[in-house]
Design goal:
With about 325 residues, the chain is α/β, with parallel strands linked by helices. The chain folds into two domains: about 130 residues, 2,3-Dihydroxybiphenyl 1,2-Dioxygenase, domain 1, CATH 3.10.180.10; about 180 residues, Rossmann fold (3-Layer(aba) Sandwich), CATH 3.40.50.
Length: about 325
């Protein structure tokens, strides 16, 4: 369990955003409206924890009543759990009385429930479970054919292309997307529409340059081809489970862009990755511990991708 976010009730969102930008140098990356709760949420990334600014939509909303009685300030602390139903059951067995009979849908793709402040030393505590992202794709017509892209994050952020494998389920990328969207305008390509020509045409038609790329094993070679054909289009790239034994090191040596090769320590390519350093100085290596097995009823991703996401490693590398 970890602190997922801090909820702050606010009267004037812009004033509070300016305040935290001045103090911490952080900006809002996402706004989401939860109509049934009468609240609009604004998310700011503060390191490994989010700030959730809560803005009331009308006077009858719970947040409006909170502001009327207590004023602006700390509203709740939210802790992430793997299974909201199981967490609720355990807490009820321990004598706690949640404010609802069952977890409900909340902002940021979470299932949530709250514990009353009277039982938690005066602080409203939220328990939240991440749910799989539903990728809402938009069709883009290019001269090479149709490309389907799901866009996440603020349009003003640096652009990052996310290129999954065809056989990788979206839940494997969910945690990574939620992390990256805090800092990037993430364009998630539908793996069924990924080719070198379509990537290149998309970059030209959307007038994108100097972009970041995170690619899976099957799309990593395509990424290198795009970097070779359009060197100004790509700034940095992360190649996950790069098929080094099949492709060899020569191709990597032709690319001048900074590259991070990442995999877990049980992957067959792991023993071979460090041999690349002598031939391709621009390549960095990240071999991470394989994630522990998750509980059978958990919806959270537990691949090396989620390890990268939880550690913030890709986010740090791309921003360095």
């Amino acid at each position: 369990m970890k602190l997922e976010h801090i909820g702050i009730a606010v009267q004037d969102v812009k004033t509070v955003e300016t305040l935290y930008n001045t103090i911490l140098g952080i900006v809002r990356y996402k706004t989401e409206t939860v109509e049934r709760e009468g609240v609009r949420t604004h998310f700011l990334a503060a390191g490994n924890v989010k700030l959730e600014l809560l803005e009331a939509l009308h006077e009858s909303s719970p947040v409006a009543k909170y502001l009327a009685s207590k004023g602006q300030g700390l509203h709740h602390l939210a802790f992430e759990v793997e299974d909201a139903d199981e967490a609720m059951r355990q807490l009820m067995d321990a004598g706690f009385k949640p404010l609802a009979d069952a977890p409900k849908a909340g902002a940021d793709g979470k299932r949530i429930f709250f514990l009353h402040p009277k039982q938690t030393q005066g602080v409203l505590v939220e328990l939240c479970q991440s749910t799989p992202i539903l990728f809402d794709y938009t069709d883009y017509e290019t001269t090479a054919g149709t490309v389907r892209i799901c866009e996440r994050g603020a349009a003003s952020n640096p652009v990052l292309l996310l290129l999954p494998n065809l056989d990788t389920p979206p839940t494997e990328w969910a945690g990574l997307v939620l992390t990256l969207e805090q800092q990037f305008r993430v364009l998630v390509f539908d793996p069924q529409t990924i080719t070198v020509e379509k990537i290149e045409n998309t970059l030209r038609q959307l007038q994108l340059a100097n972009v970041y790329v995170v690619a899976d094993s099957g799309t990593s070679v395509l990424t290198l081809e795009v970097a070779r054909n359009q060197p100004k289009a790509i700034r940095k790239m992360v190649l996950y489970n790069f098929p080094l034994s099949k492709v060899g090191t020569a191709f990597l040596g032709q690319i001048q862009h900074p590259i991070l090769l990442a995999c877990d320590d049980t992957h067959p390519e792991a023993p071979h990755l460090f041999s690349v350093k002598n031939l391709a100085p621009s390549v960095e290596i990240a071999i991470l511990p394989a994630p522990k097995a998750s509980s059978s009823n958990s919806t959270s991703p537990h691949s090396t991708l989620s390890v990268l996401s939880d550690s913030g490693f890709i986010k740090w590398w791309c921003s360095s």
